[in-house]
Every structure is written in structure tokens, then in C-alpha cells.
């Protein structure tokens, strides 16, 4: 069966989702999970866009061994140099260079004539080829480009050294028939097309991304680009897990194979959702919470009699396992470490010590500690790389009474090591708590999003809070997990505040060095 290569852009196009702001450690954890998932190619970021992105791409390149690691570049020498510096240590380094080819983009955005766009694309692909064997070239807004012009520029960039040609539906405008026939035309009208791989890249503005991707595959594309859970600009990119499962479940119709390990699907989706703060809708195909539940009596009865009556994908296929009971009060450090290893997460000694202590505290309150609980604890420790002097929550109390105005008292240890304390009032417990924390820091915080979820089920489930805040026009996310909802909420806000200061410090350093 022909192989379809999977190219993940969760860390680049996906990270362009409004409000998503991953730190280096979080990006690295996602990249490692993508590698475990069997992803052929990982677009790790856009190194020229910021120092933080450069460092994250570099860390990913140095740690990922099986997947190809790419960085994105505009057709500008300095962008190409930045990608080279960031990925040169990768086992399989590669570059993705793009320029827009539609009349509207060339005229208004690039302010270049079509001839100038061809010349820029060719010279920059040639420049990239001096540094990389694997050069992917994208025609941004390909689906709104003149098809004869597209064929002409593709032929020239292939001669200049491109090895993969990607034709994105940048604004999610194409229909499956449009998109498929564009690839058919290119295959039939570009004389050197057999020298390269053809790739598709679909955005989901009209909800057609998966259908368009499948149509591209049926018309000769051998690489699929997309993001986990379909995150990305505006309505997002195609959800890779949906394409992978469509190919697998309907292999009678789509006779193509991939190297993805389907039983890592759910874990990959959970990790991306947790770290980006972009929760997956319950009815989302393949990975939504309800994707495998059967509500109506008729369906339940059918599934009990014979699962395939209503189930075309088994939960086990995508790694949805019963939430196995794990260790309890008397479990030792060794068993705990073994469990963490099964998640594929490596902890340093210090991280393991902290995770084990938190696990032990949890067993004091929670009888049945599950895999999900352990995973939540470990990821929280693993991805908090803000090892700067930061705000620390020392103590807090909230008073709530239906007859009285809620109030909160908070003690924080400030970055200078001094404890600060305040009391404020609010119209609810969380508002009082957040107002009090805000009164203890120098900046004005606007809360732009607040979500509370439970980790697993049961009345003693861990609470997981996610916040998005804006300080001085800078958006930061924070996550907090705790047994108590207010504690989780406080932890999430403090993490977001600390991230603001980490970024501020990095920006000041960058300005000083520029
Ligand atoms: O959607 C798009 O056109 C892109 C390009 C940068 C490849 O993401
Ligand atoms: Zn895109």
C-alpha cells in the first residue's frame, strides 16, 4: 500500500491559535509525544519569529531522533539562516520555505509582481538548498492562485532544489473537488513534478479540511500537513488524527498506510489540549469525550449485544483505556517511577521527588488515584520551566457565605523573597481570590478566559483550572491542578503571572543585546 507521510504543525501553525503560548519545555514535551505517535515530520516552529521560538526549535532538534524536524522560513536569507542554526543538530534536519502566490497576496501583502515572486522563490530555494537536502516549498494561498502561474513557479522551484511541494488552502476556501483537481492539474502540467513529493495543508474555515485532505490524497498527494486536535489559525488546521483514522477505518476506500501508532492518539490529543489550554469539544471526532459513549437505550443495547452495531472505532484502537486504578497510600517511589515511565515521560531526580511528594499528599485525600491524576501531577511539574525568581503561593483563605460579600486573604512570596499579604472582596469566591492576588503584584491583570475541569470522574477528582490573562497587551496562559477548585484556580493564575514575568525578562534581555 502507498505510504502517506504525516507532517505535524501543531507547534507552528497550531501555536498560532489565538492565546496559545507554549514555553520551551511544553513544546519539547509535545514534540517527544509526536515522535512516540510515529509522526514522520515535525514542524517545530518559526525560528526567526522570536528568540523563544528559536530556542524551542533548537531544543526539539537536539532531542528528536526519529522524526524529521523542520523550521519555517519566509523567502528571506536571515529566516533561512535562523532555521539552519536552530535545526542543524537534528538527526534529520529540514526547512520549510514559503511565499504567497495568489494575486491578492502578491499585490497587497508582498507588493511584488508575479515575476518578482518567482525570482524570490527560486533564489531563496536555491539558497536553502545549499544548507539542506530536504527543502519543502509552499505556495501560500495556493487555492486562490492562478493555476497556470502556480504550475510555472512550481517547475522553477523544483529546478532550484525543492524536494517537497506543498499547496496550502490557506484560508480554508476550497471544496474537495477544487482541491483535488488543483493537484491533478499540477501533476499533469508540471514536467518535473515526479522529482518531488506533493503535500497538502488545509485550514478548516468552512469545516471542509478533512474532506479536502482526503481528496488531495486521492489525487496524488503523499504528505498530509495538519495539527493535533485541529488547532491553528482561525478555525484551525485539519485534525491529523481524523485523517489518519479515516484512512485506517476506510482502507477499503482509501488504500494507504501511515506510520502512526494509533494507540498513542488519545494521549497525544490530551497532552496538546492540556498544554495549549484549548479543550477538545466533547463530540469531536476520534478524541472527544463522547466519541465512544452511547447515550440512547437502543444504542447501548446494540453495543452490549455486539459492539460493531454502533462502534466503527474501538476505544482501544486510539488508546482510550479504562481509567485504570493505580497506586495507593502504600505504594513506593519505585512503583511510582515505573508508572511515570509508562507515560513515556522522563523526570529528573528533583522532578521525581516533587512528583512523588505530590502523589503522596493526594493519597491522603483520594482513595483511588488514577493514571489521569498521576499524569496531571507529572505534566504540571515537567512543563513549569520558569525557574526564575517567581511569585509563590504561601497561604490563602476564602470566605463565602450567601449572606455576605465573599472575601479572600492571600499571602504570596514575592520574587525578592519577601512575603506580602492582602485581603480583597469580590462578587464570588474566585473573583475575590483573583482580585487579592492582583493587588499583590505591580501590574493590572485582565482575565480573558477561565475554565475549570475535573481530571477523571468521581467526587474526589482533581480539579484542573486554566486561565488566560492579559497584562500590558501580552497574553499568557496558566494551568493549575489541585484537589480543591480554589487552590487549582490560584495555582493557574500564579503560573500565568510568572510566565508574564519570564517573557518580560526575556524581552528586556533581547532588547539590551540588540
Ligand atoms: O496556511 C498556510 O499557507 C501556511 C503556510 C505558512 C505554509 O501555514
Ligand atoms: Zn497554515
Automatic annotation (TrEMBL):
Cross-referenced SMART domains: LeuA_dimer
Enzyme Commission number, as recorded: 2.3.3.13
GO molecular function terms attached to this record: 2-isopropylmalate synthase activity; acetyl-CoA C-acetyltransferase activity; manganese ion binding
PROSITE patterns: AIPM_HOMOCIT_SYNTH_1, AIPM_HOMOCIT_SYNTH_2, PYR_CT
GO biological process: L-leucine biosynthetic process
Keywords: Amino-acid biosynthesis, Branched-chain amino acid biosynthesis, Coiled coil, Cytoplasm, Leucine biosynthesis, Manganese, Metal-binding, Transferase
Cofactor(s) it depends on: Mn(2+)
Domain of life: Bacteria
Coiled-coil residue windows: 345-372
Pfam families, sorted: HCS_D2, HMGL-like, LeuA_dimer
SUPFAM superfamilies reported in the protein's UniProt record: 2-isopropylmalate synthase LeuA, allosteric (dimerisation) domain (SSF110921), Aldolase (SSF51569)
Catalytically driven reaction(s): 3-methyl-2-oxobutanoate + acetyl-CoA + H2O = (2S)-2-isopropylmalate + CoA + H(+)
Region Regulatory domain, annotated ranges: 392-514
Matching PANTHER family: 2-ISOPROPYLMALATE SYNTHASE 1, CHLOROPLASTIC-RELATED, HOMOCITRATE SYNTHASE-RELATED
Record family assignment: Belongs to the alpha-IPM synthase/homocitrate synthase family. LeuA type 1 subfamily.
Protein's name according to its UniProt entry: 2-isopropylmalate synthase
Organism: Oceanobacillus sojae
Gene name as annotated: leuA
